[in-house]
Amino acid sequence: MKALPYEETVGDLLLASRRCELVALEQLQAAVRLVGRIRALVHQLQLERGISTLHLSACGEAYAQRLRHAREAADAALGAFAEELAGWLQPGACAQAQSRLLARVALALQGLSALASLRAQVAERAILPMAAMHRYSDLIRGLLAAVVEAADAATDPDVSRALVALLNFMQGKELAGQERAIGAAGFGAGGFEAEQRQALVHRIDAQGRCFATFLVFVAEEDRAAWERLQRVPEWAAVERLRRRACTPSSPSSCGAMTALLGEWFDCTTALIDGMRAIEDRLERHLGRCCAARIAACRADLGRCASALRSAPPPSCATPCRMRSFSMPSPRFLPARSATRSSTCRSWRTR
User: Fold this and answer.
1) Which of 155, 169, 178, 305 is the 20 to 30 Å CA partner of 343?
2) CB-hemisphere CA count at 13 Å for 341?
């Protein structure tokens, strides 16, 4: 029986499929490195936002030096982010699959172009503390949207779970940063208006939802790190100060509220720094997942190529059959995680 004309191409097509999967994984690994740069920039902008609100809320120049240091750290993180992006702009560096991520990054950079004018307003005290908080938060929101697009590009279940855990933790940490800034504005003013108390309650509740989702996808050792952070003295201090902030106060307690400003900022900053350490753990785990998946894909590609080379060609004198080529294990096949997709969509709409 005469061999069908496409029999010899079956193995070649499977090899091409593996090569495409390997390229996609390498692009995902590059996106994960970009997420690391974004995460570092977000952390420094969160600190700058908090100290800017502190500077605007407090009298005198007591926090001016801390603000200068925060801006220098943010500029350094922005430079590292731009350096990472430079590699993405080289010809042929990115596939069309990364177009949505690059579009989000472009929008984030457009927002960051307003950072200089915002800093000038803060330096001149020409903006209210809550207004400054919202403008910094808009810049950070654009950067986090780029991280969501990176997660949407992930097709491997293990990598997807690691990304979803990191995304939800980053969002919870961002809400904690907003809470720090709102609290600085309220304590600095000697009391919280009803709108500020409502904003605090909203951030506290939203943090709980983000961290609950994070715990669904996280590894056991990272869950333990989160539980250890909840046992530090600053955690109990923040809970106490939250209750004080969310309780309506009389004008006579203005001085007592203002005296709590420094404690509030120091304790919330200590917790956010602890959250950053957990973020570091999550990012390292994500990097290990990507590296392991790429190594497995390369090994599978090598086995497929070896099997194809050693298989005899089809013969016209023998019955028609496919060349001796073992199909890859299902665990090596590209798979999109439905759980990851739905979680990323829900995270994006919060």
Assistant:
1) 178
2) 7
